[in-house]
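Check these lines:
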Amino acid sequence: MVTFGKVARNVNINEKEPLKHGITRAVGLEHLDPCSLRITRWGEITDEISFTRRFSKGQILFGKRRAYQRKAALAEFDGICSSDILVFEARSDVLIPELLPFIVQSDRFFEFAINTSSGSLSPRTKWKDLAAYTFPLPPIDEQRRIAEILWAAEDVIVKNEAFVAEMEHYKQLMMRDLFRRGIGHEEFREVKKIGMVPVKWNTSKLRDICELITKGATPTSYGYRFQNSGINFIKAESISEYNEIDLDSVAFIDYDTNKALKRSILQKNDILFTIAGALGRVALVNTEVLPANTNQAVAIIRLDPKYRPRINLDYIMYYLTSSLIRQHIEKTAIVTAQPNINLSHLREFTILMPSLLEQQKITAILSSIDDAIAAARASVEASKALKMRSINQLLSPPGGDRDPTV
């Protein structure tokens, strides 16, 4: 059994002239993805950047603020980082560098970091506390064998994530082609601000095919309060990047608030469209969600019943996530501290309308791609779970002791 401070060191080097020394990348907490060893985003160094903590390729960046977010990554380049990030490196005489990332990723290490954090709004842990973390350290030869196993598992995750990214890119290409050229058309016409589309397609404004386009309201703006349980209240952040409603992130209101905020009451098959913050996320309301309300950062799009026989609901859902709508958002969004779209602009979205049969065919193609993406994502999550089980089994004390404070 060893303490973390005996096998790793906290590297605290200030770099006040990064560009002069060839360093061009800055990493903040927002660039570290939870539970991921890879850094795929960073900022460019400008005069506004206040970061001065230097890190080097091969070191570990650990988010000391809000450790429950589980942010720790292996640096694959030199850079500077936020003061809310600690920089670790292995003491190579006792710990091989290849094993350090997995020690830091283990459940016991993060539990220890959370338990030693202080502060109510933005809890932080400190190096002097993390240095006292105790864990079993195998001999060097066994460290190498464990590291080989865990890096093999990490390689599987990386490959699966790359496949998901490829499938998502392929889906975007298919959507761009299907929503501009359709299936089997040879004659095309020009549509203003869109380009060439099949002659047989009709065009409508979103408002023309809807019974209602409005937005929700926040209870606290009207003197009401959120509850610990009750009726679902869907916020913009409740709509995931996968265009689904995440029920684990909804708030709750009581029955009286639900009825008082009449405009924001949702119905089955309402389409939700985020109009503030992360713009253009889309989700469909189903019976599992209801009863429910939403806030002013989410638009409620309710199709007109008289058009339903000619409109495939899934087609509209896919269309609202297409590059055609994305371009419209980029042109009309109001860029402030929180980007937003006016309902008046949303109502003017142009909707290209093939025949119902062609809508169904387009939907079937995109749905099959979504099924493949979902299966690939499930494979990624399974690989991550297997890696974490391996980390916890191989780097925990004998007998299954999981108490990180012992």
Q: What stands out?
A: The chain has a mean pLDDT of 90. Residues 2-137 form a domain with the Adenine-n6-DNA-methyltransferase TaqI; Chain A, domain 2 fold (CATH 3.90.220.20). The chain has two domains: 2-137, 202-353.
